[in-house]
Amino acid sequence: MTDPVRSPVPIDVAVGILMKANGDVLLGQRPDGKPYAGYWEFPGGKVEPDEAILDALKREMQEELGIEVLSAEPWCGVEHVYPHAHVRLHFYISREWRGEPQSLENQAFAWQGSVGVEPLLPATIPLIEWLDRLRYPDAGLV
C-alpha cells in the first residue's frame, strides 16, 4: 500500500534565489495556514503540468513578489521528504529582475547577507553553506 503523503513521485517546485550584486539574497517567511508557517525559505512554488521549470519560476516570482525575472541560471536540485509532501526543488539564481519585491501573499521577507532569520525550512538549511561558498568565495569557508 502506498502512503499518499509520501508519494513515490515528487512534486516539482521552482525556487528562486534573488541575489543582489553584494551577495544579499531574499528569503520569505511562510504565511499562516501553510505547512511550516513561520519558517523562512527562498520564494517559489509548484510547477504546473506541462510547464517548464524556468517558466514556473518566472510565474511564481510575479505572483508572490510582483517582479519580472529577466534571467536565471539553474543552480542545483534537491529532493526532500516532508511529513506533508515529497518535493523535488529546482533552485535557480537570478541576478536580474525588474521591479522591487512586494509582499503579495502577505508574507514577510528579508534581504540577508549572513543569514540570520530562523527557523529555516529544513530543505533550505544545507543550501545556505553551499550558497555562501558561491557568494563569498574568498571568505575561506571550508
TrEMBL record:
Keyword Hydrolase: yes
InterPro entries in the cross-refs: MutT-like, Nudix_hydrolase, NUDIX_hydrolase-like_dom_sf, NUDIX_hydrolase_CS, NUDIX_hydrolase_dom
Location of the Nudix hydrolase domain: 10-142
EC number of the protein: 3.6.1.55
Keyword DNA damage: yes
Entries under PANTHER family matching the protein: 8-OXO-DGTP DIPHOSPHATASE, NUDIX HYDROLASE FAMILY PROTEIN
Family statement: Belongs to the Nudix hydrolase family.
Reactions that this protein is recorded to catalyse: 8-oxo-dGTP + H2O = 8-oxo-dGMP + diphosphate + H(+); 8-oxo-GTP + H2O = 8-oxo-GMP + diphosphate + H(+)
Keyword tags: DNA damage, DNA repair, DNA replication, Hydrolase, Magnesium, Metal-binding, Mutator protein
Transmembrane stretches, start-end: none
Signal peptide: none
Originating species: Oxalicibacterium flavum
BP-aspect Gene Ontology terms: DNA repair; DNA replication
GO molecular function list: 8-oxo-7,8-dihydrodeoxyguanosine triphosphate pyrophosphatase activity; 8-oxo-7,8-dihydroguanosine triphosphate pyrophosphatase activity; 8-oxo-dGDP phosphatase activity; 8-oxo-GDP phosphatase activity; metal ion binding
Pfam families: NUDIX
Required cofactor names: Mg(2+)
UniProt protein name: 8-oxo-dGTP diphosphatase
